[in-house]
Amino acid sequence: MESVKAQSYEVHIDELAQAALNQHVAKYDYSKIFLLVDKNTKKYCLPTFEKMFTGTIDSIFEIEPGEENKHIHTCMQVWEHLSQFDGDRKSLLVNLGGGVLTDLGGFVASTFKRGIDFINIPTTLLSMVDASIGGKTGVDLGSLKNQIGVINQPQMVLIFPEFLKTLDARQTRSGYAEMLKHGLIKDKEYWDLLKTQNAFEAAANIQKSIAIKNEVVIQDPTEKGIRKILNFGHTLGHAIESYCLENYDKKTLLHGEAIAVGMILEGYLSHKLTGLPKLSLNEIKEVFLQHFDKEEFDGHDIDAILKLLKYDKKNSHGNINFVLLQSIGVAVTDIKVPDDLFEEAFAYYRE
């Protein structure tokens, strides 16, 4: 399957990925090669990786999985490991895991010795279609998503669809939400394909989502303009994800589950503010609720979620900026939302 050319690297898929990895390591004289895994990828993905990799791993470091471990304390552990095992500026860090691990591993590599090379091998559908493109690295600040980080590009990203066999259905659906988002913001035909076919794990659709995100990122690497459209559903979705993460009486939501709620809510705001037709809004809600459970939010929950909006990364000069839809496939940025519409949006979600 054809590779996707990003800014300064390529995303290779399947057989090309294995060849690219081994050729790269053979070409560059790395002083040390470190592998970062979590408990799950060490058990389910590492054996496959070791069979396909012809180089030598000098050290493997394991972290705990999950968003709750995506913080600076975990980075400290990895930095200390790299230092303890004589990592230097000519070292390579290979990140084998989902979006939490590749975000964190990319940040660790970008800051250790002022920057070492890293390669991302995403192992979840979400990380393949989302975190694999764009060079965003970073960690959470408490429960606040991705507050600390840098944009820095990997040497390459390697997609092995066989790793999807290690996922449960919930993890797969989480990635599916991001794929649906790509259709909503940029490609109605792709949205129509995904909503009617249970084919979101097909390698061709993974490649399509990567290509859509890549097209946006190349135009705006540092998120000053059009790249903001990739955040559709994420302003409220991230606030919901953070709120559920820090409140033990709420079910902890996967990223895709939270932004699925966010896309319905922001779809409603789009209908009220930017002309999204009511039929399209209802279609968006229907598609997401076919695949994702409806979450319960009372008045207290909603107030707390809305207070978290002030931490959104798109904000500037005290304004909360939303990405909304004019139609399916057409997104607009930097939209201000009147406060009274938030309660209406949650009421529509609850209907």
From TrEMBL:
GO cellular component term of the entry, any: cytoplasm
* Entry keyword rRNA-binding: no
Its protein name is 3-dehydroquinate synthase
- In the Enzyme Commission scheme, what number(s) does this protein have? 4.2.3.4
Organism lineage reads as:
Bacteria, Pseudomonadati, Bacteroidota, Flavobacteriia, Flavobacteriales
Q: Which residues form the 3-dehydroquinate synthase N-terminal domain?
A: 61-173
Quick one: which gene encodes this?
A: aroB
Q: Which organism is it from?
A: Flagellimonas sediminis
Please give the NCBIfam families that the UniProt record associates with this protein.
Answer: aroB
Main role?
Answer: Catalyzes the conversion of 3-deoxy-D-arabino-heptulosonate 7-phosphate (DAHP) to dehydroquinate (DHQ).
Keyword Coiled coil applies: no
Q: Which GO terms describe its biological process?
A: aromatic amino acid family biosynthetic process; chorismate biosynthetic process
Q: Which SUPFAM superfamilies match?
A: Dehydroquinate synthase-like
Query: Kind of enzyme, top EC level?
Result: lyase
> What cofactors does this protein use?
Zn(2+); Co(2+); NAD(+)
* Gene3D superfamilies per UniProt: 3.40.50.1970, Dehydroquinate synthase-like - alpha domain (1.20.1090.10)
**Listed GO MF terms:** 3-dehydroquinate synthase activity; metal ion binding; nucleotide binding
Task: Return the CDD domains for the record.
Answer: DHQS
* Domain annotation 3-dehydroquinate synthase C-terminal: ranges: 175-315
Q: Which UniProt keywords apply?
A: Cobalt, Lyase, Metal-binding, NAD, Nucleotide-binding, Zinc
